[in-house]
Amino acid sequence: MLHSGDTYGETTQISMEVAAKKMAAKKVSEMLSNPSQMAKVEDMKIFTKMQFTQAENSVKTMMSSLLEETKLAYSLIDESQRNIDTIQNSMIPPTDHLVIREVDLIRRNLSGVLMEIGRFIKIPDMIQRIETMMERDINILSVHGEVRMLEKMRDSSMKSAAMDPEELAILIRIFDPVQNLLRTFDEKLMKIFASAISLVQKSPAVIVKAVQVVEREQMLDDQVRSHLLKKKKDPEDPSNRDEFRFYREKAYQAISQSVQEHFQETFGDNSADAFTDLSQKLLDELPVVLDELIFCFPKSWKIFEYYCKEYHKNFITTILNYSIQPEKITPNDIIEIIGWAGNGYQAQMEGLGYDPQPPLQQACEPLYGTYRDHIRALMTEWAKRFVEQDIEKEPEIVDGLVVTLAPTLLFESVDVQIKIARDTNDSAFFFGTMVETANALEVFQSEVLQRLRDNWQDLPLEWIMAQINNAFKCCDKIDQMVSTLAPLLEEPYDSQIAPLYEPIGEKFTTVSKESLSVLADVIWKDLEAPLDQIFDLDWYDNKDFINPIIATIGSYFGDIDTYIVENYFRRLCMECLDRLTQTYIRNIFEKSHTLDSNTAERLITDEEKIRTFFTQHIKDTIVNPKLQILADLRELIDAEADMLPLYFHSIVKNYPDVTTHIIAALLSMRKDLSKSEMKSAVEGCEKVMEKEGTREMKKTIFSTHCKITSLVNTNRTITVYLALAVKMQTVDTEDHYKDCKSFERNKHQ
């Protein structure tokens, strides 16, 4: 009986437990049907445990009372044992299966919730562990995996709780450190790329792992790109930009930023005089990229080309910064920078296999102006100083010619500047420097010409002579420069050398001619008094009047001959002969006198002495044509009236600028011609002019010298008046000529 009662009690207890479990399962199922209740699982566990304890105590009490009742009703239980056994054997109804499934689902849900809660609780520990790992660069790849796992957990949880604002807010607080961790990781990764050149020499494995991180992210970006293309969306659309991580682009940006900061730190507070040394140190870093760093990157990165491009870009920026701050750079610094850019830099970059474009020399072009301004001011100052000092020093005799040192010093300075510019291997800069040297030569020429024209009376004769020789040698120097410099320049500058320097050479020829003219002025200044007396009474009375004049000229020639260039000495002789001839012509028209056979005889005497003197220095083939005008005028003074047109025709051939006004003025001073003869002679000359027709008006002594032209213009009024008088035959020619001269003087007064 006791055994049967125990069996009944146990059976009843089992049934109650089953019922309790069903109730508990149902209640838990109801409580956990809402995902928002998952955060309260811990409280539910405690509450459920308390209920379970209470239920257990209640069941025990109930079972004790029932056991007592079963003892009393043992007989009933024994009788119904068979029925109970039958019922127990058939205790698997469909409802029990549903309960089991629900309980299993709840169990699994609880297990998942507990697992999620456990993971959430571990997030701070995971973050701390990852931060510890990040302290060593070598762990960057492992850290990347851990960080991305946290990121996925965050994104998944956020997506699940998207519909529950309360739960979403809790998750945001939980995962807030993850965002900071991601930011720290990105900064760490970019720092590795920024310090790649120094890091590759210590720990290249770190760079390799960093590149692997970027490549993984690049694969994800490629997948996103393909996904967008399948959806027929534009990957380049800004609205789709958030889909990509752009880690490779960020790595390039980190490298670019680090190179820029490296250049700024290197050149920031340093003056331009250290540019080449500092630049060379920077340039020496590129072989490290080529020999070591390049093997840490895939070929698709083209990392060496990228570093070269960034270094080249920052070299350009640095040089341009100097051009906008000219006070921080000296001309010597500019020369060093341009020379390094054209020689050292270009050669080294090409040696590394990289062609820098645009050439670094183009960045130097703004510095050209600064340097040219300096050279212009410097060379101008030197040119003026050389001329000032040159006058104060005694000329020297070199190779038999009197010279001064000013041109030598000037061309030495020019050669130095040209050599400095040539060594830069920059044709544009080289040509610009030559332009400034040409300007300096022009300044020198202008200074010399100004002193010759303004102060020639105070200048030593030797200094004037030296300018002829100096300028002559300068012309040779200019020709030499043109022939030697043109091959050193590239196109198009090589073809611009001759147009640049040839005008300089022509102006040096002008300096020689001006010096020669001034030399003649010096001689003529000493002869001013005796020359002014030609055709005066003293000249008529003294047949040796010309001798002192010739002697003075000869004395000067003795001091000058062999000390100036031979060609210019001959030109000086011709200049003096021309001036002497012009003096005779001018005085014929200027002096108030009559012309007769005595005048012609005196002219013959002077003409022969002049010819004898000048043929000692220049060829008679040069002297005779220049004296021919005196012979022709002498014939007009002494010839018969009917022969005058013939001699006038001879004059016209050699002196096409002569006019009938001049001849009429000359004939009006002859006292042996009658009125009709004079009229006939003038008309004959006019016919000769008509026969000659239009002539090439080559300028001769009658139109090239203002004094003669002025006298001719003055006598034009006289001639017209005389012509009218002759035609009317109402006045005496000689008396009327004197009246006209008086009238002309009064008119000018």
UniProtKB/TrEMBL annotation:
Coiled coil: none
Transmembrane parts of this sequence: none
Protein's UniProt keywords contain Transport: yes
Stretch forming the signal peptide: none
GO terms for MF: SNARE binding
UniProt xrefs under Pfam families: Sec6
GO cellular component, one term: exocyst
Keywords recorded for this protein, A-Z: Exocytosis, Transport
GO biological process: exocyst localization; exocytosis
Family note: Belongs to the SEC6 family.
Listed PANTHER family: EXOCYST COMPLEX COMPONENT 3, EXOCYST COMPLEX COMPONENT SEC6-RELATED
Protein name, per record: Uncharacterized protein
Species for this entry: Planoprotostelium fungivorum
